[in-house]
């Protein structure tokens, strides 16, 4: 039986297809079509069986103008939208404008600039899924406007915006908005090495019978060390803390915290990483929603079109242990 379970874990796989097609290019603008498709098969020992689902089915368009404007739209037709009432959802739709070489403004629906690990794209991660604490602290994608830039005093970068916190509105809030900020220092240490140290913050004001406030902030540090052209090591450490206040009482009544660490190593086309994260759902009392999660991932680039990934996770909650293994085959065209 154990051998059968091991085989089932090994054959867990998912398939992703990425295709970027340049539709039209002229002196004034460039039009590019994008298409992402993912089938996911994962095994959880708590369920005792594997599960297949369509993780991504996302066509998109990007329009770039020579004067610094760009427009993006991406639609999700997959069941990853977790919304059975709609056949599809709009994942991203925004307008971006370069103010100058180092500063830009963005308006629309897109990934909010909170959470350093959450900001990493699929092609930047050795592992498959984001931290579990992402769902507890990060806003995800939302509608808003933000400004962002880099090389302020040749050292400082920033991402600042205001967003319409749809999650709070869906949860019953009458009105809600969130101020989001990400301030960081980034510089080189050696020729092939660099560091990034930053502070994240979002402050949500909402009305749910009484005025309330959700204040969340966090610190992160990210190091990249290039050994040579074929080897490098990176390390990311991140911590979050969130408190909810009733502004009439001017005192918090809910407090949670969490953090994560990621260490990865690359040798040529092979990469390996290990992860650790913890989540304390209530600092003032024991909660069965708190957890500790450890795991790791491996990635191997077979050629410029094909990459394979596998990720293992061990999660401990109060009186509950869950092991999971997910694989992925990525085809890039």
Lay out the secondary structure.
Layout: H1 2-10, E1 14-25, E2 29-44, E3 49-65, E4 69-76, E5 89-98, E6 103-111, H2 134-137, E7 141-152, E8 156-164, H3 166-170, E9 176-190, E10 193-208, E11 210-228, E12 231-246, E13 251-267, E14 270-280, E15 291-301, E16 306-317, E17 320-332
Parallel strand pairs: 1-17
Antiparallel strand pairs: 1-2, 2-3, 2-17, 3-4, 4-5, 5-6, 6-7, 7-8, 8-9, 9-10, 10-11, 11-12, 12-13, 13-14, 14-15, 15-16, 16-17
- Structural class per helix/strand content? mainly beta
Q: Give the overall form.
A: globular
The helix-strand sequence is HEEEEEEHEEHEEEEEEEEE
- The helix tally amounts to 3
Strand content: over 45%
Main pleated sheet: 17 strands, mixed
Low-confidence stretches: 1-20
Helix content: under 10%
Rg from Cα? 21 Å
The mean pLDDT is: 81
SS elements, strand count: 17
End-to-end Cα distance, whole Å, is 40 Å
Write a structural description.
It is a single chain. By secondary structure, the chain is mostly beta strands. It is built from three helices and 17 strands. It has helices at 2-10, 134-137, 166-170; strands at residues 14-25, 29-44, 49-65, 69-76, 89-98, 103-111, 141-152, 156-164, 176-190, 193-208, 210-228, 231-246, 251-267, 270-280, 291-301, 306-317, 320-332. It has a 17-stranded mixed beta sheet that branches. The longest helix is centred in the N-terminal third of the chain and has 9 residues, at 2-10. The radius of gyration is 21 Å and the shape is globular. It starts with a helix and ends with a strand.
